[in-house]
Design a protein that fits this description.
heteropentamer, A mainly alpha (65), B alpha/beta (323), D alpha/beta (326), B: 323 residues, alpha/beta, 5-stranded parallel beta sheet, two-stranded antiparallel sheet, D: 326 residues, 7-stranded mixed beta sheet, 5-stranded mixed beta sheet, 12 helices, 14 strands, Alpha-ketoacid dehydrogenase subunit beta (chains D, E), oxidoreductase activity (chains D, E), oxidoreductase (chains D, E), Transketo_C/PFOR_II (chains D, E)
Chain lengths: 65, 323, 323, 326, 326
Amino acid sequence: AALVNQPVSARGGRALATPAVRRLARELGVDINMVTGTGPDGRVIADDLRAAASQPPSDTTIVGD
Amino acid sequence: MTDGMEMFPLIQRLDEEGNLIGDLGVLSLADLKETYATMRFLRTFDERAWNLQRQGVIGTYAPFKGQEAAQMGAVAALEDTDWLVPTYRDWAASYLRGVPLEHGLFFSKGHPSLGDIPVGKRVLPAQVVIAAQTLHGVGVAWATKLRHEKVATVVTFGDGATSQGDFHEAMNFASVLAVPLIFFCENNQWAISVPLARQMHAETIAQRSIAYGIEGFRVDGNDYVAVANLMHELSERVRNGEGPFLVEALTYRLGAHTTADDPGKYRAIEEEDLWIRRDPLVRLERWLRAQGQLSDEDLAAIDADSERKVEEIIAGFREALDI
Amino acid sequence: MTDGMEMFPLIQRLDEEGNLIGDLGVLSLADLKETYATMRFLRTFDERAWNLQRQGVIGTYAPFKGQEAAQMGAVAALEDTDWLVPTYRDWAASYLRGVPLEHGLFFSKGHPSLGDIPVGKRVLPAQVVIAAQTLHGVGVAWATKLRHEKVATVVTFGDGATSQGDFHEAMNFASVLAVPLIFFCENNQWAISVPLARQMHAETIAQRSIAYGIEGFRVDGNDYVAVANLMHELSERVRNGEGPFLVEALTYRLGAHTTADDPGKYRAIEEEDLWIRRDPLVRLERWLRAQGQLSDEDLAAIDADSERKVEEIIAGFREALDI
Amino acid sequence: MAKLTIAQALNQALEAALMEDSAVVILGEDVGKDGGVFRITDGLFEKFGGDRVIDTPLAESGIVGTSVGLAMAGMKPVAEIQFFGFIYETMDQIASQAARVRFRSLGRYSAPMVIRAPFGGGVKAPEIHSDSLEALFTHTPGIKVVVPSNPYDAKGLLLSAIDDPDPVLFLEPMRLYRAFRDEVPEEAYRVPLGKASVVREGTDVTLIGWGPSMALVLAAADELVAQYDIAPEVVDLRTLTPLDEETIVTSVQKTQRAVVVHEAVRTSGFGGEIAALIQEKAFLYLEAPVLRVTGYDTPYPMTMFEDLWLPDTSQVVTAALSSVRF
Amino acid sequence: MAKLTIAQALNQALEAALMEDSAVVILGEDVGKDGGVFRITDGLFEKFGGDRVIDTPLAESGIVGTSVGLAMAGMKPVAEIQFFGFIYETMDQIASQAARVRFRSLGRYSAPMVIRAPFGGGVKAPEIHSDSLEALFTHTPGIKVVVPSNPYDAKGLLLSAIDDPDPVLFLEPMRLYRAFRDEVPEEAYRVPLGKASVVREGTDVTLIGWGPSMALVLAAADELVAQYDIAPEVVDLRTLTPLDEETIVTSVQKTQRAVVVHEAVRTSGFGGEIAALIQEKAFLYLEAPVLRVTGYDTPYPMTMFEDLWLPDTSQVVTAALSSVRF
Ligand SMILES: Cc1ncc(C[n+]2csc(CCOP(=O)(O)OP(=O)(O)O)c2C)c(N)n1
Ligand SMILES: Cc1ncc(C[n+]2csc(CCOP(=O)(O)OP(=O)(O)O)c2C)c(N)n1
Ligand SMILES: [Mg+2]
Ligand SMILES: [Mg+2]
Ligand SMILES: [Mg+2]
């Protein structure tokens, strides 16, 4: 099971994103709900994911696999 | 096998030479003078509409030329409280029931006002789906019966319509429910390119009444005197609860099916000629002239009046549509 | 208005007392002995199917009890190359054309094998949609005509079916196209709870033939001798290009509409009693006895044989379905 | 309050309508003396007589077509089509006629009529009797499509349908006619058309159904809660057209996942419309594709095999799980 | 190669079919002497006679129902319904009869028949004549739905439809009958059913249409390239059922965006099915919701206003832009 810390995205824990971006999040191993969106209306966009992925993982987040 | 022609002899009162067979019945000479003027006006309108289409002013138009007596006779006996349930070629009949003739032009123009029946007039909008309105006629008549109103309903349709399942279901429902309805078939002998003999094997449409245990009648549809008298009798009878009835009015579509159609492809010029001689207008004119009731001057006056009224209608139509 | 009863007098050859009116026609005494045995077997099957439903072995079953003579007569004259286009109650007719009686049980069980007509048998699967098959009958007959085959097609349907638009369209197409088809109506006088008098206003179904300019016949449908002879004559005539024809076989549904139905809600016991006396089986039995051709022992043998055959069918059915 | 089946609730609604308004008439095959093959009109012929409750000849186009005429002339016909599968016979009179009366006449005429039909499978009926054809009518502008799934809604929706000034197709899940009872008020209350009902609130996935499929949806919801600790939100559409888009979209924005369930064959079923709508209106919220649990793309099978063909609770559970685990 | 209109290509196909197989017959209203109201059967009555090219009485259920009988008895009827709007009259004979023959008889019988019907708007025809009702039949298992959009496909698809051992509904875009010409081989070639055609390759958005809507889709594609530097991929479905899912899904996986265009009213149109399918099968590829450009949810208007009602090129361009810019 995945252990997740408090989400930080625009709307109470669940990201706004297109399905294609959600796929990228999976590919990058990023929890999309932990990413702050910078797209229209706070939407998570691909660049947000890439930025998040290039950051060292926070010690409170473990993405299960 | 039954001989439909024998069982349902053609009812005629004014033959194609303009001779009266018997008397005028419920009609008067004055009625017929007025009828003639109206018929001439309707003919003028119909021919003018045809030309408007040829000039590109309106779209597909379905002319009623040749069927004026049938349509006028169909509604001749109706009161204000009676209903008419018409098909798409019945501009003449609808006009006499209070629907402006412009509606025929609206139809050809694809303008929604076509359906805007004047308030208080008991007419349904023109039906495009062949025979669908026959069932509506049954329903309307049934409603009046359920409310104990003493009114008659007339539903009109073509010969081709009698092939549809809905026609059969309507005849059957009407007869089982004994509704105050007259089924009025304008048998103009063609359904677009299909002649009656390929439409049905029976000799007459009137004999279809037998299948429903109701009375049927075959009347010369180009003889206004005959049609109007028959409809007077039958509408009175349906108001008294004796309906339904089936009337076959034998007539002919003198023009094309619509302005999109070329009858030259499928019917013989000799047949058309035969029916030009049976024109409902001509026999009325002959008779009125023979009675000394129609002079060349009268005719010129009627024509001038018709032209004027038609011009008015077209002007109003053009104004309404801004064309 | 036309008196349908007068125009189409009931054709009868063996009355309900078992008296022969005239002669056997194309049938022989041997034929009738065999017919009687078959009819008794069919009756046994039908009653047994009813009981199977009551025991919960099968689902909704539509019994043909009382209509055996009509169904057997309908197909009595058919050759191997002729076609039968049946409705959902015609297990007896279909059986005689080569469809196993099990199919009636498959139907009630909702088993697809119901539609699996044996190869080489010219029968269509039982039709559920009222009157839809009348048009298929026209198409089948038309196909045989287009290929210049000398075959007859029989399409069967109930009295209620004559109210449907498709029936009308079928009669009209058939007559216009002059196809080799016999419309065979099993007028059992009820369409579920609706009696014929509320189904139509005409006195007879036969008179509907007039609407299509074809010949119609009204025959005692509980009189096998009359039905079989009529069908011999007519199928020969259609093979010779004289069709189509309409046959009204006057009969009665002795049982319920289906096992889901309770006729007690809508029809009088007196009427049922009247028709129990007109049972097609009884009159054949009376006549055969009167001819000295049916003893109590014969009857016992027929019954035993019927029982055995029905048991076999049910065993096969249970095996096929593993129940 | 009395506990009634759907069948009884419908019977009450029809009785109330006949009492309230003399323009209401009931017509159809076997609706009179017999009280209808499902007994929905039971007793009404006896109470109101043959002028109000009419056995017609066996012709569906005739039933609907005369109803159109009755309605245009001021009556309020409630027509019964014995089984929904026979609705095909009436398509012209419904779609080209009833549904267009107001439009065709610029509002001069209207067709206040109801067409009732039992539908759906699971009762071992013969061929053609069990088909779910609602999508043919959700594609027909001018007619409303209403589908109750329980006794309370059945009564209230039917009364609203009869009140409606335009034609309403009222589809009755025959498998549920006598499947269970609910409390149904005695009086002639209305349930508004065009409003879906959120019958269970939840956060993890939205389950959408109508009529007969609600039985599966509700059972699946119970199972998801009990066995998988998943909190489904359950929406009963009740009216298919006009559709309550807001309730659907709001729910999916919350749960981010949706499963639509219907018995009709999959391709071009109303589930496709719902899925299309959700992906359009709640696109950025979706965590998983909208899934459909439906009948197969074959004719409705012979009933010996209908249980294999019909969608069942386990399929709904599976779809909800794949949605949640997507 | 001769340049032919769709009307001429269809006429050639029918002539070839009548020549190839004596089981083929053509029937319908005015198809004989008159050559059909759109002249698609022109000259065939004269060439093949009244036993092969038959004017029927005016009854659509009759036309289709007798065709079912003809087909079950070994003929290959090609029935014409004068305008698609009148197909309602035939729904039972199509959906409950033709489409179920093989299923009902466990393959003992089949119904190799074609029902041709002109459809779509834009020709100023009276009420009911212009309706696009293909979605009623994509929801009908057992019948194939084929819709050509150009002369080449028209001829090849019609010949394949006539070859098919099961019923095929063949819809002809009447606005395109004589709108343009294309090269059409003389011989009786076939275009396979069930295969969509990628008529233009692109990378930015997939535009999906069929029949009459292809005219808009192609014009919109030109505009997108010329004015917006967008490279649309254009898919002409050609056959709606069985649907070529693979071509659609592959294309959308590449472009990640899709717009579906049809004339039929929006709710429950076939566009909903396509959108539902794409979001299900290509969910994780989608960069934007699948958009639909369709007719409005009203009856087809009186023709004075049909141009306002019908979807047009600019709506397709706008939808494609909102998809790309989403
Ligand atoms: C159900 C239906 N099928 C086909 C048509 C196309 N159509 C329009 S008029 C017509 C012929 C009608 O013939 P008839 O009933 O004799 O009327 P007429 O045109 O002669 O007045 C046909 C086939 C239609 N409008 N409706
Ligand atoms: C089109 C259609 N409508 C309704 C039904 C339901 N139904 C089944 S049998 C039946 C009565 C049929 O009466 P009839 O034609 O006289 O045949 P019978 O049952 O008496 O043999 C009805 C209404 C149906 N099967 N098909
Ligand atoms: Mg005519
Ligand atoms: Mg019909
Ligand atoms: Mg019966």
